[in-house]
Automatic annotation (TrEMBL):
This is C-type lectin domain-containing protein. Residues 26-150 form the CUB domain. InterPro entries: C-type_lectin-like, C-type_lectin-like/link_sf, C-type_lectin/matrix_domain, CTDL_fold, CUB_dom, Sperma_CUB_dom_sf. Residues 360-370 have a biased composition (Basic and acidic residues). It comes from Mytilus galloprovincialis.
Length: 428
């Protein structure tokens, strides 16, 4: 057999044994099933297009096979703008579920500018579902996802076991600018992993050497004193060993990075500082995801604060009610009335004709002014309405009539004694 024939046979063998990477496009209204492929690409656009349309609803179920797991690498995201705090539901988004098409709970959803960069399955299936609404006024190229199948008893692609036998590690270098500690925790969780727990000398040394090989200076790890200030604990609730050096701890710096250059754990502000992250997962068995610790003192303070808010709110309400009631009583209290007067203030007083109650004096028209020594009580009646000033002389009293005021006058007389006068006016 000639050399040319051998080359032809070799090329044919390579073509036959090589695995082609197939691109799976969106088919609106259809969920595709991908079986028997060890790698491939998924794009959220229709075949032959570079931008996605409105009102798309398509899905993909990746079946890795028995004893296999699936790794997704999100290499491109260009979607309709969405607020960072949104749940993605009403915006264009790609949801990734850990299971087949019957699963409804998502590991994560990608919308706006969010990108988890990597997602790993916990079993043989992953379900991806893309949705677009009818509110796109600009063209967007959508999402590109590469998938790869690997054995469940091996570390995922691009992960390393650091010469250990039961753990896999990866320094996540995307995004390049880094993320805060909580986002780093979430990104590791999307890969069925935790932030790294470094409690052995061998792991400490091997991880530092690996970081230097990939040119990484520092990265978040799973060490905090969030729960109790000054007490450093790993996410698995174990305490920091004494042989590890730390620095930078204060009230605001509760989350640790591994500084590979200084070989120390430095504490940074969890929500402010941005770094890469070191993730850790089991090589063989499913990884238990640890929860983020909760600050005990803060929790207690929040409970006390809420209790005082309730007490102060109730007390303030009672005081306001009392004040309002007092003001109501003050301005709506019924004023007392004099005997014989009208019980209602709304009734207007109507003047009455003057009346005399004396047997010697007939009704007479009152004078405007009387100060006459010839005044005779038998001939002149006292004026019915008058202001009567008395003096110490024997003269008769001077009576000044106020024609605009009606008075009731009662005259009492007893023989030769001077008469006594009782003046009364109706109360208005």
């Amino acid at each position: 057999m000639s050399m040319l024939q051998l080359q032809i046979l070799f090329i044919l063998f390579l073509n036959f044994t090589s695995v082609k990477c197939v691109t799976h496009y969106c088919q609106n209204g259809i969920t595709q099933t991908i079986n028997g492929e060890t790698n491939g690409t998924i794009r959220t656009v229709l075949s032959g297009k570079n931008v996605y349309d409105n009102n798309l609803n398509c899905g993909w179920v990746i079946n890795g096979g028995v004893g296999k797991l699936i790794q997704l690498s999100i290499t491109h995201v260009n979607l309709q703008l969405a607020p960072s705090y949104s749940s993605c539901g009403s915006y264009d988004h790609l949801s990734i579920m850990d299971g087949d098409a019957t699963v409804t709970k998502a590991i994560t959803s990608i919308c706006g500018e969010r990108n988890p960069y990597e997602v790993l399955s916990s079993g043989r299936y992953l379900y991806l579902k893309f949705y677009s609404n009818d509110k796109n006024f600009y063209e967007h190229t959508g999402i590109t996802v590469n998938f790869q199948v690997f054995n469940e008893n091996e570390c995922p692609p691009d992960w390393t076991n650091l010469t250990t036998t039961d753990q896999c590690y990866r320094i996540r270098q995307s995004p390049v600018a880094g993320v805060d500690w909580n986002s780093a925790y979430d990104n590791c969780m999307f890969s069925q992993a935790n932030l790294a727990i470094i409690n052995h000398h061998q792991v400490f040394d091997n991880l530092r050497a690996h970081a230097q090989n990939v040119s990484v200076g520092s990265a978040w790890i799973g060490l905090t004193d969030i729960e109790t200030e000054g007490k450093f604990k790993w996410l698995d609730n174990t305490y920091l060993a004494n042989w590890i050096r730390t620095e930078g701890n204060n009230d605001d710096s509760d989350c640790a990075i591994f500084n590979f250059n200084t070989q120390k754990f430095q504490f940074k502000e969890c929500e402010r500082d941005k770094h890469l992250a070191v993730c850790q997962r089991n090589k063989v068995n499913k990884t238990s995801i640890f929860s983020i610790p909760v600050e005990k003192e803060k929790e207690k303070t929040e409970i006390i604060s809420l209790r005082w808010q309730i007490i102060l709110g109730i007390s303030g309400g009672v005081i306001i009610v009392i004040i309002c009631f007092a003001l109501y009583c003050k301005f709506h209290r019924k004023r007392p009335t004099s005997p014989g007067s009208e019980s209602s203030h709304s009734l207007r007083y109507q003047p009455q004709e003057p009346s005399y109650n004396h047997q010697h004096f007939p009704d007479r028209t009152p004078r405007r002014e009387t100060n006459n020594p010839q005044y005779n009580r038998t001939n002149d009646a006292p004026p019915p309405y008058a202001d009567v000033p008395f003096n110490n002389t024997n003269s008769r009293p001077a009576v000044h009539i106020n024609p605009q005021i009606n008075l009731n006058v009662t005259v009492n007389s007893n023989g030769d004694q001077p008469p006594s006068y009782i003046f009364s006016a109706p109360t208005v």
